Amino acid sequence: MSEYITADLRRQVAARDRYAYCQTSEANSGIPMTIDHIIPIAVGGPTTLDNLCLACRSCNEAKGKRTIAVDFLSGQDCALFKPLEQNWNDHFTWSPDGVEIEAKTPIGRATIAALRMNNPVICAARRRWVLSGWHPPKDLETL
User: Is this prediction's pTM over 0.85?
Assistant: First the structure.
């Protein structure tokens, strides 16, 4: 299910955000970012600025209508990372080589698994970005 997002609302999200989940940027990937409903429409999320964020296509498609996923360490259901409410650095960090996202919390573990944030395609791209000096982002901020 999709809902129309006006050009003005898209501009507002793009002006506020650079990236949300996996920290992939349009500048690095060359692929346009998508607009993600943090709480999906399918489960009652509104199409409002406070429920929208930029996401790479891979994260957005893997997330689908999920708001929770299993934390593989505890086996318990866990809420996914909420980019407008939570600080990325509280839940995630970069591996020493800058290629993989590592979890610091159950939210981080559940989100990494559900959104496939370390899938082989993105990890191969990150390796190239690291060699080019583009990655990992040096200035992560809370959205």
Answer: yes
What is d(CA 116, CA 101) in angstroms, rounded to the nearest whole number? 10
**Rg of the chain taking only CA atoms, in angstroms:** 15
Query: 115-129 in b/e burial notation, b at 16+ Cβ within 10 A?
Result: bbbbeeebeebbeeb
Contact predicate 12/143, CB 8 Å: no
Q: Is the pLDDT of residue 143 over 70?
A: no
Query: Any alpha helices (H) in the chain, and if so which ranges?
Result: 7-16, 26-29, 57-63, 88-91, 106-114, 120-132
* Largest interatomic CA distance in the chain: 42
Tokens encoding 126? 């990150």
pLDDT of residue 51: 97
Tell me the two tokens of residue 14.
């793009």
Structure tokens at 74: 């505890």
